[in-house]
C-alpha cells in the first residue's frame, strides 16, 4: 500500500480548501487519523460517540478541529451525514493538510 497515493486520493482539492474523505469507526477513543482504508481510499477516524441525534458528527468535527488546530467553524460535513463514509470540508492548503495527516499516521 502506498500511503502517499491513498492520501492524495483521500484529500481532494476544493474551492477555498479541501474535502477529506473519511471512514468512521466507533470505538473507545477519539483518534484522527486512526488509519487508512486503502481499498476505499479514505482516512479513518475513531470516535466514542454513537450516531444518534447528530452527536457523532459533532464529535467528528471537534476531533478533527483539535487535530488540525482550527476552529470547528472551519470544518463542515459536506456529504454522508448519516453514513460511516463522509466528506469533511476544511479550509486550507491541500499539501499542508496531507502532510499533517501523514505525520499523524
Keywords:
alpha+beta; Conserved Hypothetical Protein Mth637, Chain: A; 6-stranded mixed β-sheet; 31% helix
Per CATH, which architecture? Answer: 2-Layer Sandwich
The description of the largest β-sheet is:
6 strands, mixed
How many separate domains make up the residues? 1
CATH superfamily: YggU-like
Q: Please tell me what the overall shape is.
A: globular
Structural class: alpha+beta
Tell me the strand percentage band: 35-45%
CA-based gyration radius: 12 Å
- What is the highest CATH level, the class? Alpha Beta
Helix content: 25-40%
- Overall mean pLDDT stands at 94
| Low-confidence segments | none
CATH topology: Conserved Hypothetical Protein Mth637, Chain: A
> CA-to-CA gap between the ends?
14 Å
DSSP strand count: 6
Order of helices and strands: HEEEEHEEH
Number of helices: 3
What this model shows, in words?
It is a single chain. The protein is of the alpha+beta class. Helices cover 31% and strands 37% of the residues. Strands 1, 2, 3, 4, 5 and 6 form a six-stranded mixed β-sheet that branches. The two termini are 14 Å apart. The mean pLDDT is 94.
SSE inventory with pairings:
Blueprint: H1 3-10, E1 11-14, E2 17-26, E3 31-37, E4 42-47, H2 55-68, E5 75-79, E6 85-91, H3 94-104
The gist of it:
With 105 residues, the chain is α+β, with helices and mostly antiparallel strands. The protein has three helices and six strands.
Amino acid at each position: 500500500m502506498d500511503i502517499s497515493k491513498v492520501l492524495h486520493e483521500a484529500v481532494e482539492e476544493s474551492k477555498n480548501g479541501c474535502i477529506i474523505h473519511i471512514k468512521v469507526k466507533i470505538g473507545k477513543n477519539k483518534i484522527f487519523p486512526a488509519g487508512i482504508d486503502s481499498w476505499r481510499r479514505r482516512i479513518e477516524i475513531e470516535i466514542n460517540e454513537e450516531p444518534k441525534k447528530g452527536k457523532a458528527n459533532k464529535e467528528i468535527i471537534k476531533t478533527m478541529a483539535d487535530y488540525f488546530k482550527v476552529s470547528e467553524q472551519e470544518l463542515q460535513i459536506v456529504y454522508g451525514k448519516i453514513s460511516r463514509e463522509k466528506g469533511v470540508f476544511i479550509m486550507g492548503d491541500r499539501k499542508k493538510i496531507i502532510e499533517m495527516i501523514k505525520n499523524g499516521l
